[in-house]
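Annex B, item 7. Sequence and structure tokens for protein A, then protein B.
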Amino acid sequence: MSPAASFSGEAELTDPWVALEPGADPAEHARVLRRAHETFTAVGTVPRPVRSVVAESWRRSARAGVGPDGTADVDLVDGELGAYRAEHPLARVMPVVRELLGTFASDGEHLLAVCDANGRLLWVEGHPTTRRRAQRMNFVPGARWAETAMGTNAPGTAIALNRPVQVFAAEHFIRQVQPWTCAAAPVHDPRTGRVLGAIDITGGNGLAHPHSLGFVQAVARAAESHLALLAPPVQSATGAPELSVLGRDEALLLAHGRKIRLSRRHSEILVLLARHPEGLTGDELLCALYEDESVTPVTLRAELARLRRVLGPGLLESRPYRLTTPVECDVAVVERRLESGAVTSAAAAYPGPLLPTSQAPAVVRLRQRLADGLRTALITGGDPDLLAAWAHAPWGEDDIGVWRALAAARPTAAVRARLTALESELSAPRGWEGCGP
């Protein structure tokens, strides 16, 4: 089979995360992808040769209002960029990243890039000629390369999917990025599992080899291991167990040197008990956890018995149900910072909604109250960086109030286009009488 035929749609890649099969013709496949990209931007359909991971990313990019002729916005410059980088957790592992990947980037005329969890580039290093070429498309420190801002690209898509990914040539959503190939892998906090950012290698078509994806993933794992050595699991400064529930469906409890991952129901219970150190009766917990009034106290008691076994002896008591020691919850951290007016610090401590898939009535109310408080503070403050971070996050991509505030603070063409699209959706007829905006 010829290289061209191998991408005719009749054969699938054996590994969907790798851009090219060994032996494939990069130039021919790049031509196939360019035609597919033009088809998508013209009529919105994705031809079969495009990998499913790329097709899904193109659709997300279009929904986010990204245009194929867009350019990255530079959010941070000069002293502001330097201060932000110095405080970022990944600054501590940059020596390791440079040692493992820096020489490879320089010798191969590639770039090493590291971004934060919002897809904002913090470091871009490597071959000088390649760096100058990359500057033309704002692939520079301080620029936002989140998928919701720049469409399909390795660092942005790796963060969006929370897994390593390779992006080849015209798989990039924005045309000016299509001469490039890149591979990126997310880096996680070894204590909480949260995404801290991503490590990326960017260059020419040679990076489409499967080894480049494996290499950058290995560097990301090495960075995580180094972080774990620098900051071994410890309790908070107050000595209290720590409960992480923001931006995750299952809570993580750090207590007495143990890392305990909880089920969704146990996560909901612990959130509520952490907020009520005085304790809750069985009836109060039933009302807080279940919409269905037919759920019996026996069901709740069984759930609490299982939770007690998971937590170990001495942490959960009954009559009323309560925790025997204060638990520091990340929800309370955000609330305290908002109350003190530290909006930037509050936003930094908010990786996402509280237990996003939970339907427990009390958790839903708390989730909404926290999100509303933070977004109101962001809109009132008008800081364009904070507004952009919210607007480009999954929970803020359709938040028209935030997009309006962002358009007032930073009226770029991409922001105005997204706001226009949202306002059009808001004013469109709903198709049935009485449906408000």
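Protein B:
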Amino acid sequence: MTSLDGAAPARRLPLVRRLMLRDFRSYGALDLRIGGRLVVLCGENGAGKTNLLEALSLLGPGRGLRRAELSECARLDGAGGFTLSVEVEEDGETRRLGSAWSPAEAGGGERKHRIDGAPVASSRAFSDHVRIVWLTPAMDSLFAGPAGERRRFLDRFVLAIDPGHGARVNAFERALRGRNRLLEEDRRNAAWLDAVEREAAELGVAIAAARLECVSRLEALIAAERDDASPFPWARLALDGEVEALAASGPALDAEDRYRALLRDNRGRDAAAGRTLVGPHVGDLSVWHGPKDAPAATASTGEQKALLVGLALAHARLVADMSGIVPIALLDEIAAHFDPRRRAALFVALARLGGQTFVTGADPATFADLADRAEAFEVSAETGVRSRAQA
């Protein structure tokens, strides 16, 4: 496939060859060697399959596929923290990426990151070596659910191509909390409000611009590869919101000035509401079922699942185009939802991505057609993780 500008992209292909865990979720200790590109993790519900995907998802920026607090990832009867480490192979060379979290005496905790044993500031440094994308059953209600879920879904897409996006979102949320506190005061400090609104405007426009760029590029890629006959229907996307419209209409500095004016003019309304009512934190991602030209929320449950997979596959290709790194895909209990035709098409589409994919499922029959194409592991709460060839 060519990149969006027509040039053939040079792609890096990192592969996870070893996953090591200590006191992570249900795993006291694990040292799993991995040889395949398509990796099947099969086992009963509660066996620990999703825990393995979650560990891999923490190689990316953010809070992982469960969005859990790090304290929740520590094994209940463990030492109090956890460590995770992976060996990533690329072009015959191996890198070790690792994270460790330990509780702090005063609450919270401390997370440390290393690459080949050397400390790095954050997990954002891992993005130079791997990119991670995922789908989970929790996303099934995305199109009919609240706007906040779609914003988080889109932000995960943006993070995979712009690892700094999460820091901007967090800083913007802190700025809004500061503004809300100032608005609650009986005697408001205008100078402080001006300062915090200036920061919020700069961050808010940057967030909206990053989301808009991601949606625009994704739309272009989908249009270039559109196939009405595909079992995974193509989607039309749009980003809705006042600040999003400002960011799309002209230079960033002009958008920041106009958003700052909105914040200033709406201080009274926002004080009465107890929250800031205008900003990228209230925007929404609109999704349409392309072949039917209908809102995704009105599609059947099966159509929504297929549409979601189609979006995820397109996003994985976009990540490869923009970063030059073919992402590692994590699919939790996805294949079981589809009929045999769509399931077969999913495995073909995953192979075309060219990267490494981890899939989970409870029923081995779901993966029967992959017997000679996948490396399969049996996951059990009693016996741990074993190659199915040895189980």
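Comment on protein B: Residues 190-224 form the longest helix (35 residues).
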